[in-house]
Amino acid sequence: MSRHPDAALAGYAAGDLAAAERERLDAHLADCAACRDTLAEYRTLLAELAATAAGAAPADTLAWPRYRAELRA
After folding, report:
1. Which residues are CB-neighbours of 1 under 8 A, at least 6 positions away?
2. Do the beta carbons of residue 69 and residue 38 sit within 8 Å?
3. Residue 70: in which H helix or E strand, if any?
4. CA distance linking residue 16 with residue 18, whole number of Å
5. How far apart are CA 20 and CA 1, in angstroms?
6. SS3 per-residue string spanning the chain
7. Which of 20, 40, 42, 62 could connect to 13 by a Cys-Cys bridge, CB 3.0–4.6 Å?
8. Overall pTM > 0.90
9. How far apart are CA 38 and CA 1, in angstroms?
């Protein structure tokens, strides 16, 4: 992989890549500190988003469904 795989790093961090693509990125990451740093940042961001989402109220308790029903009426 001669160029930095910027677009694939987020998918890599999320575990959304096919095995062959993941293997290519593993090889690149072994030699590229900049991409390892970027990957670490993506993983931190995903963890923060997951923590935020875990504290969110379930969709059925939010006001949006009621509000949408009122708009339809």
Report:
1. 24, 25, 27, 28
2. no
3. helix 64-72
4. 7
5. 13
6. CCCCCHHHHHHHHHCCCCHHHHHHHHHHHHHCHHHHHHHHHHHHHHHHHHHHHHCCCCHHHCCHHHHHHHHHC
7. 42
8. no
9. 16
> What's the pLDDT tens digit per position in 11-67?
999 999 999 999 999 999 999 999 999 999 999 999 998 888 766 666 556 676 777
- C-alpha 16/C-alpha 11 separation (Å) is 5
Which residue in this structure is represented by tokens 């059925």?
Answer: 60
Helices and strands (H and E) in the chain: how many: 4, 0
Contact 41, 9 (CB under 8 A): no
